[in-house]
UniProtKB/TrEMBL annotation:
This is Phage virion morphogenesis (Putative tail completion) protein. It comes from the Bacteria. It holds the Pfam family Phage_tail_S. Residues 46-66 are annotated as: Disordered.
Length: 148
């Protein structure tokens, strides 16, 4: 464990030695790669841990053989899922217009189905999160920029 903290301190010092423009470029690339990873997870209908989303509730209106649109197909677009970076941080998140919907589904909260409609308890479907592939992306991006 002590070796890991030494490596972390060493890497932090190397990153701090990068010029602010290079650091911003590195963090922007990292945020874009993480966004692509999160979009792929949403497209494959799985949470960051790799478990499948809980399926939609079967209703009397659903017909056998009917093909529905995938869940969150619009939320995963770059229009709504933004990757931003500055000289010290990189963030991936939803824009304010869709944050409420994303939060309700991510945490499995209770919300109205439509305006003035009935309340529903949504199952938790984690949309964003850190997993092994995100950590690998981070390490690879850091090594690529430091080796230049």
């Amino acid at each position: 464990m002590a070796e890991l903290s030494e490596v972390d301190a060493w890497l932090s010092a190397l990153v701090e030695n990068l010029q602010p423009t290079a650091r911003k470029k590195m963090l922007r690339e990292l945020a874009q790669e993480v966004r692509r990873n999160q979009q792929a997870n949403i497209r494959l209908q799985r949470d960051p841990d790799g478990q499948a989303f809980s399926p939609r509730k079967v209703t009397a209106r659903s017909k056998k053989g009917r093909i529905k649109r995938q869940m969150f197909s619009k939320l995963r677009r770059a229009k709504y899922l933004k990757a931003t970076a500055d000289t010290s941080t990189a963030t991936v998140g939803f824009i304010s217009q869709v944050q409420h919907t994303a939060r309700v589904h991510h945490y499995g909260l209770r919300d109205r189905v439509r305006r003035n409609g009935p309340m529903a308890q949504y199952p938790a479907r984690r949309l964003l999160g850190v997993n092994d592939s995100v950590e690998t992306l981070t390490k690879d991006t850091l090594i690529r920029f430091l080796s230049r």
